């Protein structure tokens, strides 16, 4: 991964910080939009309304819950530009492995539509591109060299041969949690853009 990131930095020496930030935001917007579509499609195909209610009542924890990511509006407003980028990078890196697992799991379904499989694969690939873009942006904006962030180990557990219902609910939880985190990535990056252009009017 470090090699890929270094290659990305070498490929983008001339792009301006503003254009790079715009490109990263576009990536994040697309990832969030496709994650919404994937989650809705999965619900329609595999999750009866009763199970949706059960899932909400059970309060499944998202795999990134342990990460020190700001959640309230006041917390987000108070953190620095550096920490906004750091938070996006942590979220991106934490989801790369789970999304690879999700593709493998969906391939085992008898009736998973190609549309869902293709969307999941697309998001997984775009997430790696987003990671590279954020790292280049950090280098350009902070001029501190590579800022590496290791995903916390043990966040993601792959149980052996679960019951089919358990597998479906786990995949649904993954998709739902990723959709929330993709929205956070987009929100943080747009706030950063706002701070660069109109610091005093960023809500």
Automatic annotation (TrEMBL):
This is Somatolactin. Keywords: Disulfide bond, Glycoprotein, Hormone, Secreted, Signal. InterPro entries: 4_helix_cytokine-like_core, Somatotropin/Prolactin, Somatotropin_CS. GO terms for cellular component: extracellular space. Coiled coil: none annotated. Pfam families: Hormone_1. It is found in: Secreted. GO terms for molecular function: growth hormone activity; growth hormone receptor binding. Belongs to the somatotropin/prolactin family. One of its GO terms (biological process) is growth hormone receptor signaling pathway.
């Amino acid at each position: 991964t470090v090699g890929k990131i270094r290659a990305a930095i070498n490929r983008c020496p001339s792009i301006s910080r503003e254009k790079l930030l715009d490109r990263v935001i576009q990536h994040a917007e697309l990832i969030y939009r496709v994650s919404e579509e994937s989650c809705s499609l999965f619900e329609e195909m595999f999750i009866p309304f009763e199970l949706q209610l059960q899932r909400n009542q059970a309060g499944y924890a998202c795999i990134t819950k342990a990460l020190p990511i700001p959640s309230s509006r006041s917390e987000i407003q108070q953190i620095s530009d550096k920490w906004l980028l750091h938070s996006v990078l942590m979220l991106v890196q934490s989801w790369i492995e789970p999304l690879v697992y999700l593709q493998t799991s969906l391939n085992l379904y008898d009736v998973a539509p190609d549309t869902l499989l293709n969307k999941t694969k697309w998001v997984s690939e775009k997430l790696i591109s987003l990671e590279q873009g954020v790292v280049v942006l950090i280098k350009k904006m902070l001029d501190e060299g590579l800022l590496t962030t290791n995903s916390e180990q043990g966040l993601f557990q792959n149980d052996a041969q679960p019951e089919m219902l358990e597998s479906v609910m786990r995949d649904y939880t993954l998709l739902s949690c990723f959709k929330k985190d993709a929205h956070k990535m987009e929100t943080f990056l747009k706030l950063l853009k706002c701070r660069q252009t109109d610091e005093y009017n960023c809500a």
